[in-house]
Amino acid sequence: MEISGIISAIVIGTVIGLLGRLVLPGRQRIGILWTVGVGIVAALVGTALATALGVADTKGVDWIEWTIQIALAAAGVAALERFKANR
User: Fold this and answer.
1) How far apart are CA 5 and CA 27, in angstroms?
2) What is the dihedral of CA 75, 69, 36, 40, to 10 degrees?
3) Residues of the chain where predicted confidence (pLDDT) is lower than 50
4) Residues 80, 29: contact at Cβ < 8 Å?
C-alpha cells in the first residue's frame, strides 16, 4: 500500500466515522481517534460487503456502498460507546 492509499483511507475513514456519529442520536463519549478508527474499519468492511453484493461499482455515486459504510460506522460507534461505558 502506498502512502497516498494510507492518506485516502484516513480521510475516507474520518468522513465515514463522522457521518456514522452524526446518524446516532445524542452525544457519543468516544474520542476522535476512535471515530476515525471505526470509520476506517467500516469503510474497508463496507467496500468488501458491497463488492460481495455486486453493488460496489455503479455509474455515478455509489450510494449503496456509502449507505453500507455509514451504517457499519454507526453500529461500530454505538458498540464501542457501549463497551467503553461498561468498563
Assistant:
1) 31
2) 120
3) none
4) no
The rounded radius of gyration (Å) of the Cα atoms in the chain is 13
Q: What are phi and psi of 62, to 5 degrees?
A: -85, 75
C-alpha cell at position 14: 474520518
Indicate whether 40 belongs to any domain.
Answer: yes
The four Cα atoms 18, 30, 76, 47 give a dihedral, to 10 degrees, of: 40
- Separation between Cα atoms, residue 19 and residue 3, nearest integer Å: 24
Q: pTM of the full predicted structure? A: 0.85
Nearest alpha carbon to residue 67 among 30, 20, 13: 20
Domain limits at 45?
29-87
What is the reported pLDDT for 1?
A: 54
Is the dihedral angle over the CA atoms 22, 27, 30, 33 positive or is it negative? positive
